[in-house]
Design brief:
Pfam families: TPR-S
Number of helices: 17
Order of helices and strands: EEEHEHEHEEHHHHHHHHHHHHHH
Number of strands: 7
Organism: Bizionia myxarmorum
Radius of gyration: 24 Å
Distance between the termini: 81 Å
Strand order of the largest sheet: 4-1-5-6-7
CATH architecture of the largest domain: Alpha Horseshoe
CATH class of the largest domain: Mainly Alpha
Number of domains: 2
Largest sheet: 5 strands, parallel
Protein name: DUF4071 domain-containing protein
Oligomer: single chain
Shape: elongated
Structural class: alpha/beta
CATH superfamily of the largest domain: Tetratricopeptide repeat domain
Length: 416
């Protein structure tokens, strides 16, 4: 009888609020967990791969309980993952493997559980690391197949507990509930394909269907907001306001989720471009800045600097001009300090976003009038394959910066 592995893991991008890192956990599942079990002919799946009819919690608990193996990824300390791992440990004495990305700060109550660590690059996982961890994980699974050992702390400390048992028919029922055509993961995957084909209405409908399965999932809401504002339908202004409405579900006043903050920043920035209402500049900068100081990422950072510079160019008060221009320079310097170190690190070659990092550094140096360094990083970016979109985005932003710096802000500073 085919064995099964249920994977306890967050869906999509999840943020570790202790470190500010946002991890694409789909990459963990797709690149280092599922390939191992596929290679061993073990059916491997997540809760979002289950057919989404009936009470999903019932199916989830059945799978946690009945699966031959459970791999639990507790990266970002997602409360659902921690709770589901506890359920598994309470019900099954063995064949549970706990993993986490290596920068996770393990809480005291979990540090007595053995955790297998892997390196995550946030957007993706490096090829070398994926191969290393797959080999390590496969060895653990093969060891369990040969001779399962007690790995549940509950059954370790209370050895007389008797775990539940199931018939083969009950276990076979698990496989019948895995219907990719109706799963949340498949709906989101189809939505991404339709987005790339610019079929935005279809993509939105697919994401709305996914939200019926997982009504409060922040990742799905974020993708729905992104696709909505990019659609510009029925008009750009209406699409932007509709997207803001979706993000209201994610508590924009108090959130520290960098992905949500980045979307709020982008939408308000575009609302300013549509309306020329400077209140939207302030809102956009507020969200981008919160995201930048939570995560110290280049995307939020470079937009914060741009908006401070834009604010300086629109001001007539000399103190405001100096303050905003000074803040823009401060952020550019912070970006250069951090991300130039990233470029020089041994792990940089494994990153999937090298062109964006190079172009961000080029933009920061352009803002600081460091022409030689700007050209250096730009040349490094264009040597990489498939950079047309990134280069077009950079050139568009550089043109805006050039106008603001040379024709407005610096002219005002010279006139003061």
């Amino acid at each position: 009888m085919e064995k099964t592995c249920f994977v306890i893991i967050g869906f999509g991008i999840k943020t570790d609020f202790e470190t500010g890192r946002s991890l694409n956990l789909d990459r963990t599942f797709e690149n280092i967990i599922k390939p191992v079990f596929d290679d061993l002919d073990i059916l491997c799946y997540r809760a979002c791969d289950l057919e989404q009819s009936g009470v999903i919690d019932k199916k989830m608990y059945e799978n946690i309980l009945k699966a031959d193996f459970v791999v639990a990824d507790i990266s970002t300390l997602n409360p659902n993952a921690i709770y589901e791992l506890g359920v598994r440990h309470a019900l099954k004495p063995n064949t549970t493997i706990v993993i986490a990305e290596d920068k996770l700060k393990i809480p005291f109550d979990v540090n007595h559980v053995f955790i297998h660590s892997y390196k995550h690059l946030e957007e993706d996982i490096g090829v070398t690391e994926a191969e290393r961890f797959k080999a390590h994980l496969k060895k653990q699974v093969e060891k369990f197949i040969a001779e399962p050992e007690v790995d549940s702390p509950i059954y370790t400390f209370i050895p007389n507990l008797i775990p539940p048992s199931f018939t083969e028919d009950e276990i076979e029922d698990i496989k019948e509930s895995i219907d990719k055509s109706h799963s949340t993961s498949d709906l989101v995957e189809q939505a991404e394909k339709k987005k790339n084909e610019k079929k935005y209405d279809v993509a939105k409908d697919l994401l709305k269907a996914a939200l019926l399965n997982k009504p409060n999932d922040s990742f799905i809401i974020q993708r729905l907001a992104l696709i909505t504002y990019k659609s510009k339908e029925p008009s750009e202004l209406e699409a932007l306001n509709e997207a803001l409405g979706y993000l209201e579900q994610l508590n924009p006043i108090d959130t520290t989720d960098p992905e949500t903050l980045g979307l709020l920043g982008a939408i308000n920035k575009r609302l300013y471009e549509q309306t020329n209402d400077e209140n939207f500049i302030d809102k956009s900068r507020h969200y981008y800045e919160r995201g930048f100081y939570v995560k110290q990422d280049y995307y939020n950072g470079i937009n914060v600097a741009f908006l401070y510079l834009l604010k300086a160019s629109l001001s007539e008060n000399k103190f405001d001009i100096y303050a905003n221009y000074g803040q823009a320079r401060k952020v550019w310097i912070e970006i250069i300090t951090k991300w130039s170190r990233v470029v020089e690190s041994d792990k940089f070659e494994d990153r999937g976003d090298k062109e964006w990092i190079y172009l961000t550094l080029a933009e920061a140096h352009f803002g600081l009038q460091n022409k030689e360094q700007e050209e250096r990083y730009f040349e490094l970016a264009i040597k990489l394959p498939n950079t047309a979109f990134a280069r077009a985005s950079y050139n568009d932003q550089k043109e805006k910066l050039s106008i603001i710096i040379n024709q407005k802000t610096l002219k005002k500073l010279k006139d003061l």
